[in-house]
Amino acid sequence: MSAPASDTPGQGLSAAAAAGEPEALHAAPLTARSPLARLARDFCASWPALIGLVVILVIAVVAVFAPWIVPQDPYDLAQLDIMDGTLPPGAESYAFGTYWLGTDVQGRDMLSAIVYGLRISLLVGSVSVACALVVGSAVGLVAAFFGGSVDSVLMRIVDIQLSFPAILVALILLAIFGNGVDKVIVALIIVQWAYYARAVRGSALVERRKEYIDAAVCLGLGTRRVLFRHLLPNCLPPLIVIATVQVAHAIALEATLSFLGVGVPITEPSLGLLISNGFEYMMSGRYWISFFPGVALVVVIVAINLVGDRLRDLLNPRLQR
Amino acid sequence: MKRYLAALAGGALALGLAQGATSGPALADELVIGVSSEPSAIDPHYHNLGPNNALKEHIFDALIKQDAKQRLQPGLAESWEALDDSTWQFNLRQGVKFHDGTDFDAEDVIYTIERVPNVPNSPSSFSIYTNSIESMEAKDPHTLIVKTPGPRPLLPTELSNIAIISKETVADSNGGDWPKTEGFNDGSLAVGTGPYKYEEFVKGDRLVLSKNADYWGGEPTWDRVTFKPIASDGPRVAALLSGDVDVIDNPPTQDLPRLEADPEVSVYSGLSNRVIYLHMDQHADDTPGVEGTDGKNPFKDVRVREAVSKAIDRAAIVEKIMGGVAVAAEQLLPQGMYGASNELAVEAYDPEAAKALLAEAGYPDGFKLVIGTPNDRYINDEKVAQAAAQFLSRIGIETSVDASTKSVFFKRRNDYEFTVYLAGWGSGTGEMSSPLRALVATPDKDKGYGGTNRGRYSNPALDALIEQALATLDEAEREKLLQQASEMVIQDYGILPLHYEVTSWATREGLAYEPRTDQYTMAMSVTKAE
Amino acid sequence: MLVYFIRRLGQAALVLVVMALLVFVGIYAIGNPVDVLISPEADLAEQQATIERLGLDKPLWEQLWLFLVNALGGDLGRSFVHGEPALQLILERLPATLELALVALVIAVTAGVFLGLWAGLKPDSLTGRSIMTGSILGFSLPNFWLGLMLILVFAVSLQWLPAGGRGDTVSLLGIRTSLFTLDGLSHLILPAVTLALYKTSLVIRLARAGTREVALQDYVKFARAKGLSSSRVIYVHVLKNIMIPVVTVIGLELGSMIAFAVVTETVFAWPGIGKLLIDSIVNLDRPVVVAYLMMTVFIFILINFAVDLLYSLLDPRVRLSEAKA
Fold this sequence. Notes:
Number of domains of chain B: 2
Structural class of chain B: alpha+beta
CATH topology of the domain at 94-273 and 295-313 in chain C: MetI-like fold
Distance between the termini of chain C: 12 Å
Helix content of chain C: over 70%
Order of helices and strands of chain C: HHHHHHHEEHHHHH
Structural class of chain C: mainly alpha
Oligomer: heterotrimer
Largest interface: A-C, 53 and 59 residues
CATH topology of the largest domain in chain B: Dipeptide-binding Protein, domain 3
CATH superfamily of the domain at 94-273 and 295-313 in chain C: MetI-like
Number of strands of chain B: 19
CATH class of the domain at 94-273 and 295-313 in chain C: Mainly Alpha
CATH architecture of the largest domain in chain B: Roll
Number of strands of chain C: 2
Distance between the termini of chain B: 39 Å
CATH architecture of the domain at 94-273 and 295-313 in chain C: Orthogonal Bundle
Shape of chain C: globular
Largest sheet of chain B: 11 strands, mixed
Strand order of the largest sheet of chain C: 1-2
Largest sheet of chain C: 2 strands, antiparallel
Helix content of chain B: 25-40%
Shape of chain B: globular
């Protein structure tokens, strides 16, 4: 599994969550503070998760402000010089200064390329997850609320979708769509929405049977209002967990697809494509072209997973009630 | 795929050192060749593709053979001559027998040529080489008369691609119908007159040939030849270093210096007939991907084309991107091959002159441009395109690269979606008319001209020269015409050649490989070094 | 049981057909395989003739109809490149992929259950915590990156193992396998470990959670109180119970492993169906791509079915009719 690019991450999650994390039960604090404050305090109790969070924040800031931080726009060919190609880390160039992480064959500063690559990876990860979350939640809510044949048709589609490994679906889709950041995002939405649909439906079915929904319906509130104002908020906690981990999955999946040559275009390389481009030079000693982007990719994914793992422990639906 | 598979080579190298002692080289007269791609069929008329064509040279013979420099040599025809403008006579070799003992004569040739257009499912037919034949007649068993509609000086070259099969052996194999490709693949019909006989073919694993001791061209060197397909560069190099194979083709360029330094291994490189070029849309007024020119197509102006040519540092591309394993190109076929001009020189890198030319043409501030390129077809293709884009950006043409996989690229290119694109051309005939006719002659369906001229360059004077050359039977006269045509298109900047690919082979010590411009990997090219 | 079986079969058939249609049309839209296959020297007339020979001149719906009719007879078409039946090409390569997936699965289950048990029995020890943090790393390392690093370390630096390719094979019941030669196994280790890592992390988590839960159950406490040795308690009682979720998930993941072998096979140049898929996509060899997908879907269906059966054997409370479809 390009690890996180799990085909069935939902499975891993739900299986682990369903099997219960019993000790977490005992850890559930009974103090009467606001839930958010309690969450924040519990979260910070785990230092790996805290480190993860800090790393994510730092990376996010760097990625957002990349154009003002890095020395070179790696996508502007006019700023590159192939005579500076494949220089080792720390090499000095008269025109440019110091290439701290070396250059690739086009003379692209690897540090700048990695920061810009991070931007693309984070963009693809977060946008695709956000869109998939919206689509999936809507489908899940509708299925749970209306039930009957609507439910069974929608869930059959979800089943079918989930029975295909994400990597395979995305690979075929992108082979058909062609390269492009937008196309990768669309493909990732298509392979991800079903996880949320299933998760939302699951929690919504539980909530649906509760009195407050009956009460809302009896009050004559509109369907949409019941769905989004009452049902949805109560289904959110497990979604937050899935979405967090799923951002890591999406980033890894994008990297894998780009590595296979069906992801982002070569002129705007993401981390995965940088690794792929550098691969053939790695064995002949020019490790930096591939190695540093790889490290950046792994750090991002590990950080997100650390946070997600902690959130899963804290937001486990079982210990909420 | 190429990109990272290529990379494994280094690892493989190390591995080879580790395993060096595990298995000795094959026995003296056995040869094992690790090839990067295996033939898609044994049927010599199924697929006009490099590996298939290399294989057919072992089992079969053509009337005429191409040597390592693609010059014509007698094959099953001892001699040939044009009797008049539309009649050729081929004097066939006597006493030649097929591997199963049947005799070779003119009937086999006629049968073969008639079969060529009748291969079911053929993805790339050889009929392009037989289309110019109007009729055939066996004057006697060893004299063949061939009629063409008009002068056809390339007929001998074309026939050098057609492997002769035994009519007696195959004619009845399919109930009176033309023989099937499967029959060749399982060996029952793979009967030729060539230096090696079919032994065994396990797709993806091995292809085994044995010596034809009665070969008319003298006894072959090797008793037994095995081809092992090892598509990834790393394992292929490793197999050579560990002695599992004796010869490999296409060792990755990054590892050539290290292979050359290894005393156990020798590397043989030679110029190929493939040129990598940039083609420019010189037809449409509103051309895609160009911005900032008030809707004009700048490439219709020769000064812009010249500026682009001068802006690109070909030597730097060869040096930095190709790792020195390529040769900067001045025309469409390397000097020394038939029809290549000796007057032309590689365009000098001169960005200042380029800028001046742009300004003169009315684009002092340049314009925006997109270069199309495949990313898995030629050696380092998209990297070369990026480097070219870099050079163009420096003279003010703000250039971006649109790279796609070959299947998508060719479709888009054929739909004229690129104003400027990078591609390559290998001259199958080994002479200048091939690239001229395909790449720069005005597209004309009926004549079969300009099939790959997706820049739609059109120069009536050039067309006339090419046409005249293709109707001239006199060799010296024709070569002069082709040289003139080559000079004409290069001086008009109708197409911009970048570099010629160089092909390499690596062998165990004690063996030598004669590099071939057609890039074929053949047991006949492997000799025992002194 | 029978009803369940028939319903599953019908559903699977529907999925197969819909998917074949989508992919068929999708690849049609990418480009023309003749552009890639044909000799560049061919003129326009020859290009047209080739298109006709391969049946690509017919309108899309007619090609589709022919494909469906032939598919019903078990003929998934001929490879444009090799001229051989696509199914045959895939079946020739399938053993290599199955071999890789199975070995990876064995590694994942053994290592995962062992480490998961450990972490579950001693959740607060340093080892237990390290195993859990390690499993997050296992989830996080992208498959291809891990493969590259393993090659760099074990093949390039240490020179212990080959960098890629498949080793010597022997024929077993007509299937060529590299499981029984030393050379074959040495080629298998790195790709199998690469493919196994993610699943190992998954199994660690499942096994740990299961162990934690089971360890608190009355019957385990009872068994301990009875004075049964701790190892017997673990192996008989705990192990049996944690195997239920492990078997389910792993069974389902076998399918995804076969799919993910696409990446691993690419990195390690492993000559399985994943590599064939990539090559065929590149060459627009549509019959092979479609046949590959139908084959994989078929395997998934088989696996799901086997998992359900196995599940009902392990846990008598589960009746098949209730198992999720």
